[in-house]
Amino acid sequence: MSYDVVTLGETMLRLTPPGMMRFEQTRTLEVHAGGSESNTAVGLARLGAKVAWLSRLTDNPFGRMIASELAAQAVDVSHVVWTDEDRVGTYYLERGKAPRGSRVIYDRKFSAASRFAPDELPLNLFEPGRAKLFHTTGISIGISKESAVTVYQAARLAKTANWLVSFDLNYRSKLWTPTEARAECESLMKLADLIFLPRRDANSIFGIESQQPSEILEQLAGTFPQGTIVLTLGAQGAVARTSAGQTFSQPAFPADEVERLGGGDAFSAGFLYRYLVARDVASALAWGAATAALKYSIPGELPLVRKDEVETLLQSSGSATVSR
Known about the structure:
With 324 residues, the chain is an alpha/beta fold. The chain is built from 10 helices and 16 strands.
């Protein structure tokens, strides 16, 4: 079987008090599957792409629950490495509204995914013609040294097979410092054809002082000239610069927020889907923005959107602009 996209990363169980309750108030917890690369995989599959998700899961009810939830959204999990050892990572989310912010507690140490070894990669998958694009994030590099080596190896195999490589920096301060993240992610970013990162990470991780998107993109392009760089700007939308120096901008679509988690992954799903179809950065930005806006209306992390919903939103408002 061939795929449009292969993703690689850890998926955990997310435990959340219902509504806006605090941990000490609740006696029940909602359970969701959550992982950046699998969120993107689900978004892509919902839009119509053929997607496989690579990871390592413990063969117990929690691991099987994750695999089943992704498979139910048409994501191929047949290449997952199963083990009787280790554990499935979990994290706890306490939702908050201003002035009380949301709170996240991770419990992922010694997870099965963090011990995903390079020799466990399905080498027969990384062949010319088996997929068009490989996607991963900085989270998968940050969870352990072993996982980082596996991610690098997968990206190199993808390039050798003439696939595109997509990388979302996705910085998590509870995994590492900005200095550590830059040191570990930069080599993969120099390999990537598509790079996603928010403006705040460009500022903190790469030491770029400017808040102007055009200046940030210009500085990033000096380090990563080979890639199309997509800079997300929150409520201001997103901008992108191609390796040829073209720049595009896209406003955000208005959205009544139900849950923001997973919005960035939904954006990358919409962008990658359209980019693979049309190889057009302007329309890919629009698809990313529309998919993210729809995700904000959905609880949980999975972008359970439909292609026709994205198309309807695109027709209703918003358009990309180009400057040269």
